[in-house]
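Board notes (copied after class):
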Amino acid sequence: MRNLTALFSIALITMSSSAMASTCDAQAAEKKLAGAAKKSFVTKCEKDAAANLTTATTSCEAKAQEKKLAGAAKNSFTKKCIKDATGG
């Protein structure tokens, strides 16, 4: 079961990484950043988003454990919780 949870978390992070990159690029475009300023902004944005995702994942997994969820119910709850927590 732990392996399934770890695999699920890795899948969420991987899917979210590409979403973070496009979101950060879009924010940089809105701010009309270019060159080194854009690169710096996108790097910081992605780092902050990854930290938020990690925090949300840990928190949501703890909540699922408190509710004694398992299997598909746990995965569904965790996915929705992370989406709500990260605004994604």
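Comment from the instructor: The two ends are 26 Å apart (CA to CA). The chain has three helices and no strands.
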